[in-house]
Amino acid sequence: MSLESNIEKLTLAVQELTRVMADSAKSPVISQPVQASAPPVAAPVVAPVVTAPPLATQAVEMPAAPTFSAPVAAPAAQGAPFTDARGMMEYVMSTYTNLGAEKGAQIQGIITALGHQNINEIK
């Protein structure tokens, strides 16, 4: 089905509904006979109980900012695991031994990257 045919069908349906509504407005309404009864009694009016002022007059306060009991300590500064040239040599040799010959050889690459030819040149 095309869009045009759907629009045409809907137009016809709306026209039919409009015609039916117009016909029902023209026909007389048959009502039930009204029986006489006592006049209606009005219900007593009760004033509403107001427990809070309207929202427009209420002031909304933001909660207090959170506080922390102890400040976060800064991480301890880590220095070299040695304090003199002899300690540095022992540290490098033990690291070389722990890494093995293949990975330990990369230590020389780090020394060269720092601008030194030999570990003994490092102060």
Features:
123 residues; 41% helix; 0% strand
Summarize the structure.
The chain is mostly helical and 123 residues long.
Give the topology.
Blueprint: H1 3-26, H2 85-99, H3 101-104, H4 106-113
Structural summary, described in words:
With 123 residues, the protein is an all-alpha fold. Helix content is 41%, strand content 0%. The longest helix has 24 residues, at 3-26. It is elongated, with a radius of gyration of 48 Å. The mean pLDDT is 78.
Q: How many distinct helices?
A: 4
Spatial extent as radius of gyration:
48 Å
Low-pLDDT segments: none
Order of helices and strands: HHHH
- Give the CA-CA distance, first to last residue: 90 Å
This entry's quaternary arrangement is single chain
Strand portion? under 5%
Instruction: Write down the overall geometry.
Output: elongated
Care to count the β-strands? Answer: 0
The class by helix and strand makeup works out as mainly alpha
Mean pLDDT: 78
